[in-house]
Amino acid sequence: MENLIITGSNGFVGLNLLTYLNNQFNLSKLSIRYSPNQILDIDADAIIHLAGKAHDLKKVSSPSEYYLANFELTKQLFDSFILSKATKFIYISSVKASADSVDTVLTEIQIPNPQTHYGKSKLKAEEYIQSRFLPKGKSYYILRPCMIHGPGNKGNLNLLYQLVKKGIPYPLASFENKRSFLSVENLCFIIKELLEQNEVPSGVYQVSDDEALSTNEVVSSLSEILGLTPKLWHIPKSFIFALAKIGDKLKLPLNTERLNKLTENYVVSNEKIKNILKIKLPVAARQGLKVTAESFNVR
User: Fold this and answer.
1) Which residues are 28's β-sheet partners?
2) Range list of β-strands (E), 8-65
3) Which of 15, 18, 23, 281 is deepest in the core (most CB within 10 A)?
4) What's the pLDDT at 261?
5) Measured between alpha carbons, how far is 52 from 11 in angstroms, rounded to an integer?
């Protein structure tokens, strides 16, 4: 396998993936937007589909934007893949296609029940890919990553890093949650393995680092990287809940929804993909966190 087409190559994952695969494959960037009855000319051995609409935390996007970008566009690209000579189709979905909240550990056998248009649009794309007849010699891999981080990432980890760097105490230390993260290098490594191995069955695979971390552990690790003493405030939960309810009424930064996001558990199993590929991930969770934090520091 030599020639690859990558959509969404200008995004955070795309830029990291281009660097990671650059010396091993012939890479082509495909810039696509939904257009009715579109058939794309696919001249490659494999397609890595990263393009799509990310989860809008500010909630200003219309539902149709998600379904056009994440479902209809993926449908057109997969139909074009079926008609092409390409043999592998790798679709980057999301764990949010399965569940918005997790009580124990999320696995691929859980019946999907997304609650947001982002998650629902990703799931519709997954279901379409799985519903199509797959010609002999072709494979698809639907990857469901959890929260991805790494160089160039501008998400919640960056905000937490800035808070720690400024010496601002983390006020939610009374909440002992566990969350799975995903180093972008581990994601790139798994994509490369899927491209190189030829006996991997088509299917849905979750992707995460091996170890889940609490937000307190993340704050402590970031503090250590910065050479600072962790500042964790164990404010009574009842007081925090009361503040969040006031925030609901007064439209403050801390409201019930944001509190739930900051303190929820979301642990993802990566056992299926590791067992199928017979691999060990190259980057440990805390090591990946260190790489990400150091990239914040150089900008």
Assistant:
1) 5
2) 26-30, 46-49
3) 281
4) 78
5) 10
